[in-house]
Specification:
alpha/beta, four-stranded antiparallel sheet, 12 strands, 30% helix, binds iron/sulfur cluster
Length: 337
């Protein structure tokens, strides 16, 4: 497994759709459909795609909130040994949980309004029996300082904080167990633009201080560009492109990535691109199209695309793409205008 902290191989998460009195399975929703993904220690990998593409399900399956249908989730533990999270259950899974934490999208709903900051932040310590009494309080104070919360607010309730402060409480809770991997799912999407920048900068500072590795899930490409070392693009449960961030933004290799990039809203209305680059609906993961899933929306599609599934192939240093014509298409990035 080399120096990777996390390596996901052939991961699938299917949900059966049941109907009728006998709850018969009538269809299958392929939320995550054979994903390979590797994350190095200390890296930030941005996971991007439209809503419903499976990125949140992928994050939750890695965290083992969902049980995978098939595949491996290889995670390098603090002691250097590698565990397949996909196969762990019960106590052995619980023992690893402190090393992988999550930051949620909505700080309002992810914090229990009846619990104080002390109780919220120390919850993972208590649940995993890692600290109690004075040590619990000391560790909460320590992490509150790290995330920019005032210690005098230790016994306040979430409603007394602003949105940005509530997200800092969520970050403190994720950090309290000294994890090595944090899955951040739309962690700044609910915040105002100015607060968003502060929280992103905080996450970057914390990455240095705590030697963190991030899987950063977002539909917002400007956030992904700001924080990620590499980007993974998902479409209908599959990875369609992987690239270092600068390369992906300067020259995408997959038509879906190009369409996403060109659809980023421009701050200057005079420079708004009038053309619509991504038309049509995302296909249902219950009945995805044949061949390349993107072919009904792709302006470069040929007859081959409707019948043959493009494999994810390596193309250049650190780049992977699933498109039959990735070698010949000359796609537009945003950095190159
Ligand atoms: Fe478009 Fe065909 Fe490439 Fe799919 S394989 S992205 S349909 S050109």
């Amino acid at each position: 497994m080399g120096e990777f902290l996390l390596e996901v191989r052939g991961l699938k998460k299917y949900f059966p759709l049941k109907k009728g009195l006998l709850r018969r399975t009538v269809a299958t929703l392929r939320a995550v459909d054979g994903v390979d993904l590797a994350i190095q220690a200390g890296e930030t990998v941005g996971l991007v795609g439209e809503s419903g593409c499976g990125k949140t399900t992928l994050g939750r399956t890695i965290l083992r909130t969902h049980r995978p249908t098939t595949g491996e989730i290889l995670f390098r533990k603090n002691d250097g040994s590698v565990a397949d999270l996909a196969k762990l259950e019960g106590d052995s899974l619980r023992a690893i949980r402190p090393q992988i934490q999550m930051i949620f999208q909505d700080p309002q709903s992810s914090l229990n309004p009846r619990m104080t900051v002390l109780d919220i932040v120390s919850e993972p310590l208590v649940a995993n029996r890692l600290a109690h009494g004075a040590e619990r309080v000391a560790r909460v104070k320590q992490v509150m300082e790290k995330v920019g919360l005032e210690i005098k607010h230790l016994r306040r309730y979430p409603h007394a904080f602003s949105g940005g402060q509530r997200q800092r409480i969520g970050i403190a809770r994720a950090l309290i167990t000294n994890p090595s991997l944090i899955v951040a799912d739309e962690a700044v999407s609910a915040l105002d633009v100015s607060i968003r920048a502060q929280v992103l900068n905080l996450l970057q500072d914390l990455q240095q201080d705590f030697s963190l590795t991030y899987l950063f899930i977002s539909h917002d490409l400007s956030v992904i560009q700001h924080i990620s070392d590499r980007v993974v693009v998902m479409y209908v449960g599959k990875v369609v492109e992987v690239a270092p961030t600068d390369d992906l933004f300067a020259q995408p290799l997959h038509p879906y990535t190009e369409a996403l990039l060109l659809s980023i809203p421009k701050p200057d209305p005079r420079n708004r691109i009038a053309e619509i680059f991504l038309s049509g609906e995302t296909p249902s993961p219950v009945t995805p199209p044949t061949g390349c899933y993107f072919h009904p929306r792709c302006k470069y599609a040929t007859e081959q695309c409707a019948v043959a599934v493009p494999p994810l192939q390596t193309l250049g240093t650190g780049r992977q793409v699933a498109c039959h014509f990735a070698r010949t298409l000359n796609l537009r990035g945003v950095a190159s205008g």
